[in-house]
Design a protein that fits this description.
- By secondary structure, this protein is of the alpha/beta class.
- It has ten helices and eleven strands.
- A five-stranded parallel beta sheet has the order 2-1-3-4-5, sandwiched between helices.
- Helix 2 runs parallel beside helix 6 and helix 3 packs parallel to helix 4.
- It is rod-shaped and about 185 Å long.
């Protein structure tokens, strides 16, 4: 009837069970100072992690007034600084010996404790209402110590594994950030005004080179055209005619194109292809009384 009533109040709800801390700052033990329970808890705790302090709150675990002492000690333990777990229990015995852990005051003290409580009452087959209210139940006091105290060597191994994993993740993040930084630096360099100016200067240099090449080609074409026209002019010019054995008759700087014009001059110049000579004009009379000029 008591179990049913307390269950209806929610004192045994599984959703209210709190997880045990991985490494508690301290553990309070509510049990008899003379029984084997305290020895077993101390032995296991010292073997697994001697750095965790244990605080004993001595109580009677059977007989008149034992339940009230246990409940008061549990409430006191919940107020102690640095206590993260409470272990309460006793060794095996008859139903009457274990009855204090069935009392309502003990059950309520466990359910109202601000820190997790481990119940270690009797042997594995013994069950009390304290077991239902506790956050964790241990079959024996030694198992209660194992639940409360993680093995130091195992913790260090787990920490080392986590350290290596964290180092690998950190290195991966660094490599990813370096790749991203390289990509951003490449993009920034491509968009930088200096780089863009260099690209424009390269394009301008290419354009200048093209213009110079085109100008030189045009000049070569023009020179070739001039040479062809010069050859044509020379072929049609007087010097080419002189080269074939003719001479150009000049009076001063004017050409003489007729004998009549030549007869009126006293001297003339004959220009050949390779130079010029001066000549004197002589006149002779022929039949008819006209004079003809002879050179």
């Amino acid at each position: 009837e008591r179990k049913a009533r307390l269950a209806r109040e929610g004192l045994f709800d599984a959703g209210k069970k709190r997880p045990l801390p991985l490494v508690p700052r301290g553990i309070a033990i509510v049990t008899s100072p003379t029984g084997a329970v305290l020895h077993d808890i101390r032995t296991v705790s010292a073997r697994r992690n001697p750095a965790i302090p244990l605080t004993l709150l001595p109580v009677r675990v059977q007989g008149d007034g034992a339940a009230e002492e246990i409940a008061a000690a549990i409430r006191q333990a919940g107020k102690l600084p640095g206590i993260d777990v409470i272990i309460t229990g006793r060794g095996g015995g008859s139903l009457e010996d274990l009855w204090a852990f069935n009392e309502e005051c003990v059950v309520r003290a466990i359910a109202e404790s601000p820190v997790p409580v481990i119940s270690a009452v009797g042997h594995e087959t013994d069950v009390t209402l304290a077991d239902f209210a506790a956050d964790a139940r241990a079959a024996t006091p030694s198992m209660a110590a194992e639940l409360a105290v993680q093995d130091r060597a195992e913790l260090l191994a787990r920490l080392e594994a986590l350290r290596r994993q964290l180092g690998q993740l950190f290195l991966q993040q660094v490599l990813l950030r370096q790749q991203l930084l390289g990509t951003l630096r490449t993009r920034l360099t491509a968009c930088h005004p200096v780089q863009r100016l260099a690209a424009q200067e390269h394009a301008l240099a290419t354009l200048k080179a093209g213009i110079r090449t085109a100008m030189l080609r045009r000049m070569d074409e023009a020179a070739a055209d001039v040479a062809r026209q010069k050859a044509k002019l020379e072929a049609l010019g007087p010097m080419a005619v002189l080269g074939r054995g003719y001479a150009l008759v000049m009076r001063g700087r004017s050409p003489v194109t007729s004998a009549q014009a030549a007869s009126k001059a006293q001297s003339l110049t004959l220009r050949f292809y390779d130079g010029a000579v001066g000549v004197r004009v002589e006149r002779e009379k022929e039949h008819g009384g006209q004079e003809e000029g002879n050179l």
